[in-house]
Amino acid sequence: MLIIPAIDLREGKCVRLVEGRLEQETVYSDEPAAMAALWQDQGARMLHVVDLDGAFSGSPKNIEVIKEILAAVDIPIQVGGGIRSIGTVESLLDLGAARVILGTAAILKPELVSEACARYGEAVLVGIDGRNGRVAIEGWGLIADKGTVELALEMKELGVQRVVFTDVRRDGTLKGPNLEATGELARTTGLKVIASGGVSTTGDLKSLKKIEHLGVDSVIMGKALYSGAVSLKEALAIAEGAPEVQG
Fold this sequence. Notes:
Elements: E1 2-10, E2 13-18, E3 21-29, H1 32-41, E4 47-51, H2 52-57, H3 63-72, E5 77-80, H4 86-95, E6 99-102, H5 104-108, H6 110-120, E7 124-131, E8 134-137, E9 142-147, H7 148-157, E10 162-167, H8 179-189, E11 192-196, H9 202-210, E12 216-221, H10 223-227, H11 232-239
Parallel strand pairs: 1-4, 1-12, 4-5, 5-6, 6-7, 7-10, 10-11, 11-12
Antiparallel strand pairs: 1-2, 2-3, 7-8, 8-9
Helix pairs in contact: 1-3, 7-8, 9-11
C-alpha cells in the first residue's frame, strides 16, 4: 500500500481544512516546496497536491507554487483542483505532474474525462468526494444528485482506472476513514482506489491494509502527518508490511 502525503494549497501556502470548510483552515507552511522536499526526504514515494483555490473557483490558481514543488522533488506528484479543460490537463502533465485528478468535471463534463483518458490513460484519475453517499462537487460546496458508486461505474465506462475516494465528513477531522464506503466502492467497481479522509492513527492504516486486496492500494494522509498524530516513518512501515515501529 502506498502512503501519499497531501499538500493542500491555498493562497500559496500549505494548509489543511476541516470537511473542506475555508473557515476551518490551519496553515502548516508558508513554503509548500520545502514541505514537499521534507516528505520526500522522509521516504514518501508520491505526493498529492491540491489547488484549493482552483477547486473553489473552477480554474487553477497556484500554478507557480505547483511548479516550485515539481522542481523541488524527484518523486511523482498527482495534482488536482480546478482542472476542467483538456488544456489544463495537458499543461499540468507537460509541467511534470505524473497524474491529474478530475473532480467536478466528472459530473459537469464527462466528455472531458473520456477525452483525457483516451489521450493520457492511467495519468488521469477521478476524485470522487462523497457526503452521505452522494457526490460533493465544486470544492464540496454542492451535493450532486448522484451516488458515489454510480459515478464511479460511469467513470469506469469512460476509461478511468483509478479514483481518489474521499468521505468529506471525515476529511481533516482525524475521526478515522470510512472503511465500509471505501471498501464497497472498490469491491463494486473493480477500480483501483486511493483512500482519503480521516486517517488518524496507525490502527486506521492497519484497517485500510486489510482491504488492500479489494483494490484499495493507496492512502492519502494529511492532518495526521502534519499534527504528528502519525509519523510518516510509522505509516510507511505499516503500509509496506514491515514490523511496527516502536517508540
